[in-house]
Design goal:
The chain is an alpha/beta fold. Helix content is 36%, strand content 19%. The strands form two sheets. Strands 7-6-8-9-10-11-12 form a seven-stranded mixed beta sheet, sandwiched between helices. The radius of gyration is 20 Å and the shape is elongated. The chain starts with 15 loop residues before the first strand and ends with a strand. 43% of the residues are buried.
Length: 315
């Protein structure tokens, strides 16, 4: 079926799509070894968008060096691309550089107020509904926990200073559970144990890893799991892949669901829908996955009440 291109579009020119990622090498991303392209690619093709045939996709990766983002974004804007897919700090940089080119992104923990009219997105990690449940699950797993590290990507904080307001918004929820939230920014993506250990020395007894971009990758998750096992600390993650790599608990939206809705936004914008006309969607399903081997490694027994709630148990 022929594609319905935006009114006024040149049928001889393929739509140009910029796609910026943060922490994964491009060859690993495009091969499907890491990242969400393995989920997004078939969804795009199902909607009629095949790279090199019906759309031209310009991939860029900062590979963990966020100082490269301004030049990358500027280069894509100069082409120009018709739509820009950008995540985390790349999304923030794209918003600073253009108010015209449509931007599609995952939204979540740091979003405040209405979106700019050129931005569309999917709430992959809506904090207002997720964090209270995650804290309650931690309390159920370990009733004595009172100081919880809130683990986030500190590299995005200077440009997106959301963590103080985020903690203030959830202070009452934490207090009702007898908990104090301790902000714990990760400065080195592949060695998170350094900042986690500093938080441990400040007395944290559990950790909650938010859904920041890149926290779904093994390079980040495995050192977190090793540190948690050594310190006997319960950790709950927001990214679905964390339980598969050895994490204790995950509560969050499934990656496939979020990727499908992101591609839906890309598809609609490529076909001419204004980003401001697309509703911001929240996930419709959340998953609780518990790794029983990880619980054993930190000397904990998973209560029957948690087993009953779990979407899936990993032995």
């Amino acid at each position: 079926m022929p594609l319905a291109l935006p009114c006024g579009a040149d049928p001889k020119r393929l739509p140009q799509l910029g796609w910026v990622i943060l922490n994964v090498r491009l060859d690993d991303y495009l091969s499907g070894r890491q990242g969400t392209w393995r989920l997004c690619k078939p969804e795009l093709q199902r909607r009629g968008w095949t790279d090199g045939r019906t759309v031209q996709i310009h991939f860029r990766s900062a590979e963990g060096d966020y100082s490269r983002l301004p030049e990358m974004i500027a280069g894509l804007i100069a082409k120009p691309v018709d739509v820009l897919v950008a995540f985390g700090a790349a999304y923030g940089e794209a918003m600073r550089q253009t108010k015209v080119i449509p931007i599609v992104t995952y939204l979540g923990w740091s979003r405040e107020g209405p979106l700019p009219p050129n931005v569309a997105g999917v709430n992959s990690v809506p904090s207002s509904s997720l964090l209270p449940k995650q804290l309650a699950l931690l309390k159920e797993m370990s009733p004595s926990v009172s100081r919880v590290a809130i683990v986030y990507d500190a590299r995005t904080e200077p440009s997106e200073p959301w963590i103080p307001q985020f903690l203030a918004d959830h202070a009452d929820v934490a207090a009702r559970l007898g908990m104090t939230l301790v902000p714990t920014g990760i400065r080195a993506f592949t060695s998170p144990q350094v900042d986690l250990e500093a938080a441990f020395q400040r007395g944290i007894q559990a950790a909650l890893v938010v859904g920041d971009v890149g926290f779904h990758l093994p390079e980040f998750q495995l050192p977190v799991h090793e540190w948690a096992n050594r310190r006997k600390i319960p950790v709950i993650h927001s990214q679905a892949s964390a339980a598969e790599t050895g994490g204790l608990m995950v509560f969050g939206a499934g990656e496939a669901q979020s990727a499908a809705r992101l591609v839906y936004c890309v598809d609609r914008v490529l076909r001419g829908t204004k980003p401001a006309d697309l509703p911001i969607e929240d996930p419709t399903r959340y998953e609780l996955v518990i790794n029983l081997s990880a619980a054993k490694a930190i000397g904990m027994t998973v209560p029957a009440s948690l087993r009953i709630q779990a979407t899936r148990l990993i032995d």
